[in-house]
Every structure is written in C-alpha cells, then in structure tokens.
Specification:
single chain, alpha/beta, 7-stranded mixed beta sheet, 4-stranded antiparallel beta sheet, 12 helices, binds pyridoxal-5'-phosphate
Amino acid sequence: MSLDFIPDKVKKLEVYYPIDHIYRVRLETNESFIELPTELKRKVSEIAVDTKFNRYPDPAARDVKEAFGKYIGVDPKYLTAGSGSDELISVIVNSLLEKGNKALTFTPDFSMYAFYCRLAEVECIRMKQPDDLILDIDEVIKKANEEKVNIIMFSNPCNPTAQGVSRTDVIKLIENVNAIVMLDEAYMDFWNQSLIPDFQKYNNLIILKTCSKFVGLAALRVGFAIANEDFTRVLNATRSPFNVNSLSQGIATEVLKNTEFLDECKAKIIESRDELHRSLKKIEKDYQNNIKVFDTKTNFVLVQTDLADTIFTKLHERDISIRRQGKNYLRITAGAPEENAEFICEFETILAEETAK
Ligand SMILES: *Cc1c(COP(=O)(O)O)cnc(C)c1O
C-alpha cells in the first residue's frame, strides 16, 4: 500500500475529530454558549447575500483586522489574520523555525503546539507542569536557556489547567530568554494580565488571539497574531494568501464592531464560570477524598479526580459532554445556566453512586 510513501512522522497518525457527536449538553470545547442575537443574525444574512462568491476573499483581510484592532486597541498593521489561531500556530512553526531548531512547551498545554512542531520536524520539549499547575517562571527560563530553544509556546491563562502566569512573570520570561515567545492569550478575556498593551516593547513576542472563545464565532474560524512589523511581515508573507474566507471576514467584522454585544458576552460567560466553579466547590466539600477543584482564570474549570474515567463515561451516557484530560482530570466549560445545572446535578449523582460502592 501507500505506507511506503508516507514519512514516519505521520505514518501512524489517526484522524482526530475533537467532537464526534453532538451532545445535548456541550461543555467540552470551551466555546461560548451564547448564540448571535436575532438582530445580528439578520445582518449576517445580508452579508451572505452581498458576498461575491465567485471572487476570492480580500487577501489582506483589511476590514476584519481593522475591526479587531479597534476592539483591542492595536493598529491593524501589527495583525495577521488566520483561519483560527490554530492555523497561525502552524504558520509560526513553519515559517519562523527551521530544521534543527527546538521548541519548548508544557504538558499539559494546548496540544497543537507540539503537533505542528512534529509536522515541521522541529524537536519539541514538553516541560511537565508542577503538581499545583502553577508554572515556575525561573525554572522555565532555566530550561529554555539550557536547551537553547528557539521558541517557547504556551497558553496564558492555560488550557487545560485554567491557571495563569502574571504579566510580570511573562515579561521576565520574554526578557530573559534568547527565543521567540509565542503567547497564546485565547482565554485572556477572562483574566486581566494581557500583554497586548505592551507587545511592541519586545522583539521576541508574538501574541495569539481567537474569535472562537468569548467572541462566540468558533464556526467561522478566525484568529489573529499580534506582533511587531518584522514578524507580521513574515507571517503575512508565509501564510496561505486567501486563508480567511469572505463570509468569515464579513461576519466577524460585523460582530467585532458590536462592542456592546461583546462586553455582554464576556460578562455572561464570567458569571456562568463563577457559578459553575461555586457549585463544584460546594460538591468538593462533600467529596474531599475524591475530587479537587482548581481555581480558574478562564471559561472552564479543571477538576482532578481518580474517578475521571467513570464520571466521563457516565456523563456521556446521559448525553453530557465534558473533556477528559489525561488520566485524572476533567475539564468542564462554563455553559448556559441550564447546562451547568444539569451537569452539576448529574456530576453529583455519579459521585454519590461511585463513592457508595
Ligand atoms: C481554543 C483555543 C485556541 C483557538 O483556536 P482557534 O483555531 O482560533 O479556534 C487557541 N489556543 C488555545 C489554547 C485554545 O484553547
């Protein structure tokens, strides 16, 4: 068969579908639970009608970069648009690294960093996070310099740990390594330690943002890299020329202009997150030997439990999806109030059943 023609680095890769079934309660992928309001949906349909489907999209993604830039207070000339920030990770790894280069990331962290390194044949060192899941920045600096890595890739706050590194510590890292720092701020809308206001101060910093989380546009696949002019030029020169389609550009532009809606989304998601966290903490009190609920700076909550496998399976049987993280962790996205309530109720029931045995 064709296997002889397929390189080892991908020979055994299986197709990965993060979601393979639409569950009734969906707390698995850290999306927003908020749908676009009717008024915005009407505008979306107008945009669709006006789209010239026979023409390629704007290769510079001008309008959407302008709308996003305005929202975050960054000149669009420092932005690169991608088909999700996922694509931008791939562009960064492929264009800014060479064979023989080394990358540093953490375990656990967003798995796509290591994945794209593997495809690019870049060695990726995965530094284990401490047991409390709080990164020790001095250790990271030491490791990066010892290993002479060319890039450090991490999410802050971190998916899946929900913990965060302070601005001061991130700056310390940026200033004390001889490497690109790819800082993925996918969840920084739920915390307040963003480096976006200062990105121009550093010649080795690239920040990633996505519209898939609090903005609520996961369906469109729109993300951005924020970086100085040199990086931005190279990223725009090496990405695929028409990487963000016309519909996504048009619709994201409209939604990003609607700052009132965005602020409202953020507030609602944080409220849901707090509610979910509070409820889990309450359950933790009764099951101290079985679960540990971590604090959260994101729109999800991480739970450590020896019963992860059973809980995950039993929730699926009840048509509730959450994310299993390694052997002993569960990650639960803050959902609509009724989704949270249903999850909490079933979660507690399962715990009671399992611990009564
Ligand atoms: C969800 C997520 C992204 C977003 O990826 P998109 O491709 O923009 O949807 C990026 N980084 C992290 C850490 C994430 O959790």
